[in-house]
Write a structure and sequence with these properties.
192 residues, 9 helices, elongated
């Protein structure tokens, strides 16, 4: 079953609509969607390593634009939309602690959290709710999200075939490690 899912994702990653799906997921993840764009970026870059940087650029642009929507949610409709989203994902307490730190360390938080697998939507909504300078928010988002996606793309561009072979031979190990990493990111968010 796992191998079948892997094959389907690789087929989707090679399809002509894959870039649109990547952009949609990257946009949505920065403001309200729980699945990171890496779930599609990695298989797309593995399927077409020569296009890895193009995919990173799509991810970066869509993520930054989605971050603007997250900022708007925090800025304009926090009580009506963001609070229920934060409660839905169980981020309410983490958000309160994060908000206090954001007032003092906003730029550094954007730069650091944008590089991690911790959900970026928390950063974008918090920036808007804290009324953080929008221009600085967008510049920091472009820098940090671009660095993250281009690092992944560069690694996959140069080591894509060997990574793909490793994944195909050890699919269960790779998916288990990925699940542990995602769970670790959520636990870090909850306890930080």
């Amino acid at each position: 079953m796992l191998r079948s899912l892997y094959i389907r994702v690789m087929v989707l990653a090679s399809s002509r609509n894959a870039a649109w799906w990547l952009a949609a997921i990257a946009f949505a993840e920065s403001s309200f969607f729980p699945i990171p764009p890496d779930a599609l970026l990695v298989p797309m870059a593995l399927a077409k390593p020569r296009s890895a940087w193009k995919y990173a650029a799509i991810c970066t642009a869509a993520s930054v634009c989605g971050g603007a929507l997250g900022y708007l949610i925090g800025f304009a409709v926090f009580d009506q939309i963001a609070q229920p989203l934060l409660r839905l994902y169980g981020y309410g307490a983490a958000y309160a602690a994060f908000q206090a730190k954001f007032q003092e360390y906003g730029l550094w938080i954007i730069l650091i959290k944008g590089l991690t697998p911790i959900p970026y939507k928390i950063v974008t909504i918090a920036a808007g709710a804290a009324r953080f300078n929008f221009l600085w928010f967008m510049l920091a988002s472009a820098a940090t999200r671009g660095a993250r996606f281009f690092l992944v793309a560069t690694l996959l561009h140069f080591f894509g075939d060997s990574v793909r072979v490793f994944i195909e031979r050890r699919l269960t190990l790779v998916t288990s490690a990925l699940a542990v990493g995602i769970l670790g990111g959520f636990l870090a968010l909850k306890f930080l």
